[in-house]
Amino acid sequence: MRKFLFAAAAALLIAGPAAAETVAIVNARIETVGKAGSIPSGTLVIKDGRIAAVGADVKVPEGARIVDAQGGVVTPGLISPSTNLTVTEVDLIKETRDDGSGTQLSAGFDISYGINPASALIPLARQGGVTRVVVTPTLTGGGDGEDQEEGGSADAGLLQGGGGGGKGDPRLFAGQAAIVSLDASDTDPLVKARVAVALDLGQAGAANAGGSRGASLVLVRAALQDARDFNNNRAAYDRGATRDFGLSRVDLEALVPVVQGRIPLLIRVHRASDIRQALKLASDEKIKIIIEGAEEGWLVAADLAAAGVPVIIDTEADLPDQFETLGSRLDNAARLQAAGVLVVIAGSRDFNNLRQARFNAGMSVPYGMTWQQALAAVTLNPAKAWGMADRVGSLEVGKEADVVIWSGDPLDTQSWPTAVFIGGTQQPMTSRAQQLRDRYAKPDNGYPVQYR
Amino acid sequence: MKSRLWAALAAGVTASLLIGCATTPTTTKTADSTPSKPADNKPLPTGLDPDTASGFPSTYKPLPSRPTAIVGGTVLTGDGKQIDNGVVVLVDGKVAAVGGPDTPLPAGVQIIDAKGRWVTPGVIDAHSHLGVYPSPSVSSRSDGNELTDPTTPYVWAENSVWPADPGFDRARAGGVTTLQILPGSGNLIGGRSVTLRNVPSITMQGMKFPGAPYGVKMACGENPKRVYGSRGRGPSTAMGNVYGYKKAWIDAADYRRKWDDYRAKVAKGDKADAPKRDLGLDTLADVLRGKILIQNHCYRADEMATMIDISKEFGFHISMFHHASEAYKIGDLLKENDICIATWADWAGFKMESYDGIEANAALTWKSGACVVIHSDDPIITQHLNQEAGIAMAAGRRIGLDIKDADAIAWITLNPAKAMGIADQTGSLTVGKRADVVIWSADPFSIYAVADQVYIDGGLAFDRKDKRFQPKSDFELGQPSEGAFIP
């Protein structure tokens, strides 16, 4: 029923192949996050799914559908840099979770096979201005250990049964991430599979390795060496003529593009010394890395900048909530930015709070980020970190038209998106949550609400 | 809420004795136990009379303060008013005056210029686990859920609070001046809450809010049945949960009757044998007497309705439903029964019982006239309750509800105070109340707002611009950031 309604709504709103339509967004403050910077009042033209023109003096092409932004703000679509959206429906309902590698696989786990474009949470994220997400796996599939559950540690403690690691043997790597578009008109929204292999270091890495940090890094380095040897001796491997490798063929295969430097390791790490170890790993192994977490990143900001490693951070994280995050500070983002690090701001890993990312960007402003830097940290910077800045992340001619019109300041609480375009297609602005809201907002007519 | 509490008090206990129950347990005389004529009955031996041991006394002392006038700011009073270019005067730890620019200032008062800034009551977090689930989050300090029995009204959160939790400092920097610390939601009845002043202290007693009534945590739904069902014991179902609540309240009613009979006999001078004291039933009997407030974790509309029926069957009142993701479905029922709800702005969908949570929950419930609170249940969100309220308000404005800033500020000030039974003492900028005040750098609902200065009982407890007023927990000394989490 819901799917039917959704399809009907989508058909009404975007009749035909809307991506081919030419749209001119007028009367807008345009934040390009590109070379043109901020355009106080301008026009943005979308044609064939791409941005065809943007500027203060752009003419509206003949036949274009005009969308009046009514003085609102136009930004690139927001990009969630690491999430379980599209592969998880309800955190605590195991059957709805496809974000964990399970007991059989390590690096070989491929999250892209579980993507569900019919997830009821995608419209919610889209309504918050999110147009593209990087779906990243975790080892346990039980969240990142920082889930708030009822928002609180009380229940987090409950749900994790007093802590402890996953079940079974150490599997080290969490698997391969994917980039997904949130375009409602696309039944196969996968943009790119296998864009990174995820790995925990630090405390979680130690637990995953069945020991301490020393165990974890030894095993990780050995696995990378195995992947190289495997790739250089495939024929011998197939004959059974190589030494034993710690990981299965599938897992080794997934690490080959990592050791070749074609895709990054997404390393979740928090303590300054662990970040240094991650940087050393990258330099010794000549691999690319992206760091997620980095609460103590400010202590090693210069090293991160010198290595050109992007960091994904939560700007609200200011608690010494683990022994590996004792140095958490609210100006982490600003200090990293000042050092020249590519700063990516995340909301919550969980689908249901993806909207938090724009607020987290806003909250970094009183702590030293400029407003422009904060906006870039949820648009262009994640695009750069994930190697898609040539296609999305800013409002520049030739890029795919992932565009959001906001009622006001996109980083503030009192504004919301009034229109969202993905690849030039205007998106339906409805969601399960909104349908619930509207059902109960209506006055009582004597019949049960289920008739509404 | 307050009127109900006071009605309960009038039924048998005086206001001062209620306060005494939290602050002066050595005061042994109560209206019930004072004989009306001489009797043979000796006073009960130490420790056997429930009325003599109602918690450890507060040793809270307000910070030093001097008469202060905050002038020129936009004042949200907490009880529905907005005053532009307002004046708030704090004297001897109390609000001495609130008004427009013409408000007379006492001689010698220190003047704080709040031009361009906003002034509100101190933020009250009605659902916190600071201290009982402190940072760092390690198993040896995981003290919030007594998961050894589904019914543990005999445990008190105050006995689990670690006052050095660095989370208290973070919350204070977010404007939080008062917190209700609750046990977790793993049990049907999880134990007593405690209300704390958010001041640095070596002991819990040094934070304990003088005169605040206790609460009792109850939990509906998935958590208790998951915890105990997975251990092969009850409850393992929703109906098992309800059996558990009812059994506990039957025991409580019976216990209360025995004590009331005993007191009546003593009062008449008849010979009487006191019932044996039971710590859990002491708590529940005091709920039935209206002295302790029910704080009920409950997500679903149908389960809230069930809890309301249970409360009617056994004669107690539910002060507030916490989380209450589906409150928007039963706003009228909540209003009719004078029950507040405490919820988040947009945290939902992480478990089945929160699957129908929506951003407009608070706004729609507000529209129906019920008492709405925005809570945290989280050491990060507690630092941003002002913005949580802003997000919740925006969800209402988005569908055309005329929610004013002056209304929404009550969601994190006066309304939690009501639901916690402390609205006569704090929660609004009202003359005579405790001078708990925050000066915000901007409109507090804005994402860019930070608390510049936080006053608790008129004392400057936090100042963003002055390191001397940025207290640090012992735990954080010598650590990478030395407890400094702001620039």
Automatic annotation (TrEMBL), chain A:
Keywords: Signal. Residues 1-20 form the signal peptide. InterPro entries: Amidohydro-rel, Metal-dep_hydrolase_composite, Metal_Hydrolase, Metallo-dep_Hydrolase. Residues 139-161 are annotated as: Disordered. SUPFAM superfamilies: Composite domain of metallo-dependent hydrolases, Metallo-dependent hydrolases. It comes from the Bacteria. It comes from Caulobacter ginsengisoli. Residues 304-424 form the Amidohydrolase-related domain. This is Imidazolonepropionase-like amidohydrolase. Gene3D superfamilies: Metal-dependent hydrolases, Urease, subunit C, domain 1.
TrEMBL record, chain B:
Residues 119-447 form the Amidohydrolase-related domain. Keywords: Hydrolase, Signal. Residues 1-22 form the signal peptide. Residues 25-65 are annotated as: Disordered. Residues 25-37 have a biased composition (Low complexity). InterPro entries: Amidohydro-rel, Metal-dep_hydrolase_composite, Metal_Hydrolase. Gene3D superfamilies: Metal-dependent hydrolases. Belongs to the metallo-dependent hydrolases superfamily. NagA family. This is Imidazolonepropionase-like amidohydrolase. It comes from Caulobacter ginsengisoli.
